[in-house]
Amino acid sequence: MSDFSSVLSPREGEIHVIAAAQHIVKALEANKNLDDDLRKILSQLDSHLSAMTVLTTESRGTGFREVEEQLKYAEEKIRGWESNQSLLWDSDEFDPLEVSEFLKAIDEIQALIEGLRSLSVNGNGKQKELLNRADSILQMAMSRLEKEIIHILVKHKQFFQPKNMSFRSCVLDVLYDESFVSVEDIPSEEALQRNSSGKESDEYNFDLVRPQVIPHLKSIANVMFGVNYDQEFCQAFIRVRRDALEEYLVILKVEKFSIEDVLKMEWSSLNYEIQKWVRAMNIIIRYLASEKQLCDQILGDYGFVNPLCFVEISKGFLAHLLNFGEAIAMGTHEPEKLFRLLDMYEVVADNLLDIDALFSEEAGTAVRFEFHELLRSLGDFGRATFLKFGNAIATNASTRPFLGGGIHPLTKYVMNYIKTLTMYCNTLNVLLKDQEAADPNPVVEPVNGQGVSSITHCQMACHFRSITATLESNLDSKSKLYKDGVLQHIFLMNNLHYMVRKVKSGELRLFFGDEWIKEHIVKYKQHAMSYERATWNSVLSFLKDGDGPGLCSASKAIRGFTIAFEEVYKNQTGWSIPDPELREDLQISTSQKVIHAYRSFMGRKSSSISEKYIRHSPDDLQNYILDLFNGSPRILQSSRKK
Amino acid sequence: MPATDNQGSFLNRISIRRNQVVSMDGNHEQELEDLELFQKHVADRFADLLSQSEDTLGDGLLSISWLRKLLDVFLCCEAEYKAILLLGRDPSQISKPPLDKLVPEFHDRVVKALDVCNAVSHAVETVRNYQKLAEIAVTALEQRPIGDGQVRRAKKALNSLMILLEEKEGSNHKSTERAWSFGRRSTNATTSSSKDRATSASQFRSLSWSMSRGWSAAKQIQAMSSNLVAPRGGESSSPALPVYIMSTITVFVMWALVAAIPCQERNGLLTHFPVPKQLGWAQSIIALQEKIGEEWKKKKEKNRLAGLLEETQRIEKLGVSLIVFADSFQFPPEADRLEEVAVQVAELGETCKKMEEGLVPLQQQIREVFHRIVRSRTEVLDLLDQGGKVTAPVM
C-alpha cells in the first residue's frame, strides 16, 4: 500500500492526469485475461485514484460521489452474501468465481479504507461517515470469513490413520508375584510384537486437512492478516485444530487419568494403559509433524505467529501425555513394571529429536524441557527398578524346601526376565552407564582377554552376571532347607542346568560368554557327581564288603544292597529332574556304575549266594533306575511282598 | 525473592549445624531450634504476602503477581521443610510413630496437590483465552476514528469472552443454560439465537475438562484438608509439627489457586478450613484465608464466578462496561463518551499486558511446584526404601 501513499498528495493541476490514469486502469480491468494478482493491484489502484480525485475535487464541492458509489457496490455484494446462509467455501456449492468476487470486494473496501484514512487529517463529516460504513462492511466480511474458516477446517479435516491401528489388548507378560506360579517361558511373540509396533518405516506427513482447501485457507489468512484481523484468524484456527487433536485422543483411546488414579490403578490395567500410551506417543509425534506442516502451509508467511499457534494447538494435549508419564514414574518399583517402563523410556528417547525439532522455536521451550524432564524421570525410575530387581532376588526367602528338588520358580523367573531384558540392551546400557559413574563399587568388571565379544563386557552383561550370582547364592541357601543332603545336589544341579540351558539358547549367550557357560557346566556336573557319590557309594559298599575274604557272606552283602537300593528307589522316584536329557544322562551314568558293579559281583559270587536273596536281576535294576527322578514316588513291588 | 537463593543458604546452614551436633545427645534441642526458625520464616513470608494483598494498584490479593509470589513462598517453605524432615534424621524414624502415619498422609495430600497443579495449569490456558479475546476488543477500540465496524468487532469478542467466563463455571449446567443477561438483547441476528450460542459455547468446551471425568477440584481440596489435624500434647513439637505446617501451607496454596483460576469443577469449594487460631506462624495464613473466603462468598452471591484472579475480574468488569457502551453506540460517537471509553480500553489493554507477561511464567512456576513436589516425595520414599530393604517377601 505504501507504494501508493507517495502519490496521494496531488495538486490541482494534476487532476487531469489522475482522470486519465483512472481511465487507463478501468480499460485494463476490462481485460478478461488478467491474473488475480494483477487484478487486485489494478482494483486497489483504482480505489486510490478515486480517493485522490475526492481530495482534489473536495474543495469544489463535488464530494465523495465516486467513493460512495464504489462503497455501495462492494457493500451490496457483501451484504448479499451475508444474507445468504450457505457458505461460500462449501465444497458442494463451491463457486470459484463467487469466491473471487467476494475477495475482490474485500480488497476494494480495504483500498477505500486505506485511501479514506490517509485523508482523514482534518476530519470531514462525509469522509468520516464513509469510513465508518467501510469499516462496518469490512467487519461484516471478516466475521463471515471467520465462520468460513471454521467451516472449512471442520468439514475438511482428516484423521491420521497409522497402518497398524488395531491394537492388541494385552500381551503375555512375565508376571512377578510372590508365589511365582504364573511364570512360564515367555513366548517369542513378545519380541515380534516389539519390533512391529515400533516406528513404522513410512515417515511421510499426512494431510490433516484436504489439500485442495489449503489454498482457500491461505487466501483467507492473507485477507484477514492484511486487514489486521489476524487475532480472529488465529483464535479460530487454534480452536478448531485443538478440537481435532482432542478428538484424535478419543480415537486413539487414550483416556485421561489423574495422577491419583494412576497411582491407585491395578497393574493389569496400568499395563494396558501404558501400552496405549506408548503407541499414542509414536503416532502422535507424527501427527504433530503433520500439524506443523499444516501450520507452515497456512501461517508460514507470518513469522512468529506460526510456531506460537502450533504450540497453542498441541500444548494441552502433550501436557496430558506428559502427566501420565510422570505419574507412572512416581509409582513403586515392582520388577514386573520394568519392561513397560523401558518401552516408555524408549518411545520418549526415540522421539526426542523429533520433539526438539517440532518445538525448536522459543514458544516451544517449555514443551521441549518437559519431555527431557520426563525422559530423566523414566530413566531414573527404570534404573531404580532394575536395581531393585537384584535386591528382590537377594532377599527372596523361603521357609520350606522346594518339593522334589526341581527347578525353582525364582530361577525360571529370573532367567526369563533377563532374557526379555536383552531386547532392551541398548537402553539399559545407557541407563546403567549413568549410574556406574556415581557408584563407588561398580559391578562392571575390568575388560581382560582378547577376542571376547564386546557385549560380554557391556554394563548390562556385568549386571546380568551379578544377578545370576545373586540367584546362585540364593539357591544355595534354599538348598540348605533340604534335610537330605543328596537332594541339595539334585536341586542345585537342576537349577544350574536350567540357567546354562537358558543362557545357551539365545541372545543371552553373548552376554554371558563362553567362559561363564563352561564354568557353570562344570558346576552342575560336579553336583551330579556329588550326587552319585553320596547316593551310590554307600549302596555299592555292601557289594565291596561282600567281596572281602572275611566274615561277611555274599548273601548278606546282596541283601544289604537290595534293601539300600529299594530305599533309594523309594526316595528318588519322587525327586524330579525336569529336563529329559539331563535325567537320562544321570540315569545312564548311574546305571553304568551300579549295574556294572552288581553284574560283576553276581558273576563272581553267584555260587555262594542263596537264590532267595536275589530279588532283582541286573536288567530289573536297569529298569528301576529309569524310574528315578520322575517326580512320582514309587515303591518296589517285591519289597512290599516281603 | 528468588526461591533458590534462600533454599541454598538455608540448607547449608542447617547441614553445617547438624554436622556439629550430630555426635551429641543434644540433637533434640537443635531440632527444636530449627523448628522455631522454620515457624518464624513461615510467619514472615506469609505476613509479606498479607501486606502485598493490600496493594490497590492491581498487584494485590489474587493478582497474577501475588500468586507468583505465593508460589515462591511455597517453594521456599518446601525446601526448608524438607531440610528439617530429612537432614540428619535417621530414616528409620520416618517409619516409626508419629511419622509413620503422618508422612503417608502427607504424601496422599501432595499427590492430590499434583492433580490440582495440573488442573490449574490447564485452566491458565483458559485464562489466556480470556486475554486473547480481550485483546481483540482492545485492538478494535483503540482504532481511530472509531465506528460501527470497530464497535461490532469488539462486541463480538467481548460476547465470546462473556460466554467463556460463564462456561468455565459450566460444570453447573443450570448456569450454562442461563442466558447471559447483558448484551444479549441486542446482539446481531447471527449470534442471538440460542442454537448459535450453544455452538459458540461448545467451541470452547474442549478446554473445559482437563482431567478425568468426575474429577473435582473442590473435592480434592476437601479431601486434602479433611484429615488435617494440628498435633497436640507431646506431638506438638518436632517432628509432627513441620509436617502439619507444610500440609497447611500446601492446602492453602492449592485452595487459593483453585479459587483464583477457574479449573475443573469448583462447585462446593470450601470457603474455609480450620487452622487453630493460637498458632503463631498461622496468623497471616488465617487472615489471608478469611479475605479470600470473603471474596469467594461475595462473588458467589452475584453468581459470577469466573475465578477470583484479579485480572480476570478486571477484564470481566471492563468487558461488561464496554458491552454496555457497544450496545448503545451510535455513529458518530460523542466525544465525552469516547474519552470515558478510551480510559477503560487503556485499562483493559494494561490488564492484557500484565496477563501476557505473567500467565506463562505463572504456568511455568506451577509446573516447577509440580516437579518439586514429585522430587521431594521420591526422595522420602527412596529413603524409606533403603531403610526397608530387609523386609522382603517370604515364600
Automatic annotation (TrEMBL), chain A:
The keyword Protein transport applies. GO terms for cellular component: exocyst. It holds the Pfam family Exo70_C. The keyword Protein transport applies. One of its GO terms (biological process) is protein transport. It comes from the Eukaryota. Signal peptide: none annotated. Residues 276-627 form the Exocyst complex subunit Exo70 C-terminal domain. Keywords: Exocytosis, Protein transport, Transport. GO terms for molecular function: phosphatidylinositol-4,5-bisphosphate binding. Belongs to the EXO70 family. Component of the exocyst complex. This is Exocyst subunit Exo70 family protein.
UniProtKB/TrEMBL annotation, chain B:
Residues 184-198 have a biased composition (Polar residues). Keywords: Membrane, Transmembrane, Transmembrane helix. Coiled coil: none annotated. InterPro entries: ROH1-like (IPR008511). The keyword Membrane applies. It is a single-pass membrane protein. It is found in: Membrane. It holds the Pfam family ROH1-like. Signal peptide: none annotated. Residues 175-198 are annotated as: Disordered. One of its GO terms (cellular component) is membrane. Its main location: membrane. It comes from the Eukaryota. Belongs to the ROH1 family. This is Protein BYPASS-related protein. The lineage of its organism: Eukaryota, Viridiplantae, Streptophyta, Embryophyta, Tracheophyta.
